[in-house]
Specification:
Order of helices and strands: EEEEEEHEEEEE
Structural class: mainly beta
Distance between the termini: 19 Å
CATH architecture: Beta Barrel
CATH superfamily: Lipid/polyisoprenoid-binding, YceI-like
Strand order of the largest sheet: 1-4-5-7-8-9-10-11
Radius of gyration: 18 Å
Largest sheet: 8 strands, antiparallel, barrel
Shape: globular
Number of domains: 1
Number of helices: 1
Length: about 200
């Protein structure tokens, strides 16, 4: 059964809230972030699987919900050990210095589409913090047989890597750049909370 809730997340933190919201924690075994970027004459795709987060969802007032999430850069996996090392290096993401991608929501608003929300907040990547608005679809919220309520969220967005100081590149023939600027990002996020057993 779908419910008109909103939010995304991934950063395991303690939650202190005076609201009547329901606290959900990201399930890292069921969540992942996928990315795609142009490199030379092909597209590089990869995943980041180490996602932590907590969210307070208010069913009666989705705008009062909050999100705090973190994605660990070292969990990046393209299927190539050499490429993984290059992307984590100081030339690109510099995971030794900037180990996390963080997001903290500041506001949530409904859209004209059912179960789709605009989640605005502060995104920190590569040591640079910028305000972004992410479209978040609440795919489903269901109760399983193990005493947990599970919420599934889907986020699709495009980020400019140079906006976050990730500027390494090389010029090919005819002034074509080796690496594209746009990073297409898709986050499948599953979060859960305990529910009372009848």
């Amino acid at each position: 059964m779908r419910k008109p809730l909103a939010t995304i997340g991934a950063l395991a933190v303690a939650v202190t809230s005076a609201s009547a919201g329901e606290v959900y924690f990201v399930d890292k075994t069921r969540s992942e972030a996928k990315f795609e970027v142009r490199y030379f004459y092909k597209l590089i795709t990869g995943k980041l699987r180490d996602i932590h987060g907590v969210m307070v969802l208010d069913p009666a007032n989705p705008g009062a919900s909050t999100v705090n999430f973190s994605i660990m850069v070292d969990s990046l996996d393209t299927g190539s050990a050499g490429l993984n090392q290059q992307l984590r290096s100081a030339y690109v993401l510099n995971s030794a210095k900037f180990s996390k991608i963080n997001f903290q929501s500041t506001s949530i608003t409904q859209t004209a589409r059912m179960n789709v929300y605009q989640v605005t907040g502060e995104l920190t990547l590569h040591g640079v913090t910028r305000r972004v608005t992410l479209p978040v679809e609440v795919v489903s919220i269901v109760q399983d047989g193990g005493g947990l309520a599970r919420a599934w969220f889907l986020v699709r967005t495009t980020l400019s890597r140079t906006d976050y100081g990730i500027t390494w590149n090389s010029v090919l023939d005819h002034a074509t750049l080796l690496v594209g600027d746009d990073i297409r990002l898709t986050v499948n996020l599953v979060a859960s909370k305990k529910v009372a057993t009848p």
